[in-house]
Amino acid sequence: MEDSPRQQPAVIYALAEYIRSHAIKKPSKADKAPDIEAALSVLGQRDPAHDGDRPIDLRGVQLAGVDLHGADLSRANLAGAVLSHGNLESAELSGADLRGASLSGTILTGADLSGANLGAAALNDAVLIEANLSSARLDSAQLKSADLEKADLRNASLHKTDLREADLTDVKLDGADLTSVRRPEGDLPTSSPTPTPPRQLPTELAQ
């Protein structure tokens, strides 16, 4: 699509429509759907600057086990999509609509999900090491046993999010909304330790 940026919105619309119409049910083991994989590859490698105002519409697609490593699906509508046990490592999903999506067991290491809407999404056992979830909406999302080591959750909304048994080592939570969050055992980690106040010397020694 690099040679036809003006046609890109029409092309991605047609590709997304094709994927939706052919990925509405779980594929059998015999059906590898190489045409769908090819269409996804084109979408993931496009230049988003030529997308126009219409986001990629992949609502409700059944793509369990899909390999979208490094794909750019920023602002895509993936609400209700099944992407469980897939590979989305280093994927660009900033601003994407992933409400109610299934991402359980999915590899999202280093993925950019900043500003994404993951409300009520299933992310149990997902790998989100060093993922960028800043300003993301994770209200009522399921993150049980997810690996969030060094993930960036600054200013994210985690209202009623299930974080039980999740690995929160070195996670960044500055400004995050943790209202009614279902926590792992113990307190949630803080992004930066509280500084120790300087010791005051006795008056006679300070002079």
Count of DSSP strands: 0
Structural class: little secondary structure
> DSSP helix count?
3
What CATH calls the topology of the domain at 56-185 is Pectate Lyase C-like
Secondary-structure element series? HHH
What would you note in describing this structure?
The chain has 207 residues and is mostly loops. The chain has a domain of 130 residues: 3 Solenoid (Pectate Lyase C-like). The chain has three helices and no strands. α1 runs antiparallel to α2. The termini are far apart. About 2% of the residues have low confidence.
Structural key phrases:
207 residues; 0% strand; Pectate Lyase C-like; 3 helices; little secondary structure
What's the helix and strand layout?
Elements: H1 8-22, H2 34-44, H3 203-206
Question: In a few lines, what is going on in this structure?
Answer:
It is built from 3 helices and no strands. By secondary structure, it is low in regular secondary structure.
